[in-house]
Design a protein that fits this description.
By secondary structure, the chain is mainly α. The protein has four helices and two strands; from the N terminus they run ββαααα. Strands 1-2 form a two-stranded antiparallel sheet. The model has no long low-confidence stretch (mean pLDDT 90).
Length: 98
């Protein structure tokens, strides 16, 4: 939820739920992401995954954390464009893990 142009959790140190991540990405980039489209979003997600792989091999913990955030952000953007819930996507890991 936005408060004075900032999410209500801004400035706090606490975890975010997956649905909150999706809402944040929608609030920040939703219109631009939809205009860019799903194929371009998938391409950006793949690029960020590559950067995460490189940071995992050769990066500092700070760089790894940065890239994890980027991957999560692009994944949330993709979920939003597909009109799918990341919470629902993860539910099978609770009820019936592969």
């Amino acid at each position: 939820m936005l408060r004075h142009g900032r999410p209500s959790w801004a400035g706090t140190v606490r975890g975010m739920e997956l649905a909150e991540v999706q809402r944040l990405m929608e609030d920040l980039y939703g219109a631009a992401d939809r205009e860019r489209g799903i194929p371009a979003t998938v391409a950006w997600l793949c690029e960020e995954l590559g950067e995460l792989a490189q940071a995992t091999r050769k990066g500092t913990p700070e760089e790894q954390l940065h890239e994890l955030g980027d991957v999560l952000a692009w994944l949330a953007s993709l979920a939003n464009q597909l009109d799918l819930s990341m919470d629902e996507a993860m539910a099978r890991y609770v009820t019936d893990p592969p």
